[in-house]
Amino acid sequence: GMPYEIGADAVINFFAPIQVPMANITFIEAKDGKPSGSAIVEFKDRKEALLAQHKDRAHITPARYVLLYPSSGMERDWHKRNAEKQRTQQRARAAAQAAAMSPSPHHHGMNAMNAMNTGMMGG
Predict the structure, then answer these.
(1) Sign of the CA dihedral with 110 first, then 112, 115, and 120 last
(2) Which of 7, 95, 101, 104 has a CA between 20 and 30 Å from the CA of residue 38?
């Protein structure tokens, strides 16, 4: 698979001389929202997709090679929807955690966790 930190430019360079617009690259995310090391690349037509298949097992970096598999537009769309759903869930969890950590509007002191961490526990 691809290194997790790989970007669209590296994917475009990998498939050169085939022209791949940046918008035609969908990076697949793991459930935690981090890169999975996979991507879906959409080519202009079947001829270019078949040409790209010659890059199967070619190295994208000196230490990493890429396995290529045929994919469908439906699969790409599913991954895009799923990634957006995961990002929405992550934002909701982060907002809930932030709300849980912030003091209520009627609380004028430190919460107990902050007080213990600073050694200023009062009674």
Answers:
(1) positive
(2) 95
Residue 106 DSSP SS3: coil
In eight-state DSSP terms, residue 104 is P
Confidence category of residue 44, pLDDT binned at 50, 70, 90? very high
pLDDT value of position 103: 63
Average model confidence (pLDDT) across the chain: 79
The token duo for 81 is 């929807």
Instruction: Count CA atoms within 13 Å of residue 31 on its CB side.
Output: 0
For residues 70 and 64, the answer to whether their CB atoms sit within 8 Å is no
CB burial string 2-37: b at 16+ within 10 A, e below: beeebebeebbebbeebebeeebbbbbbeeeeebeb
Count of beta carbons in the 10 Å neighbourhood of residue 41: 21
Are the beta carbons of 29 and 86 closer than 8 angstroms? yes
Tell me whether strands 35-41 and 59-61 are parallel, antiparallel or unpaired. unpaired
Tell which residue, 9, 104, 121, 113, has the closest CA to residue 60: 9
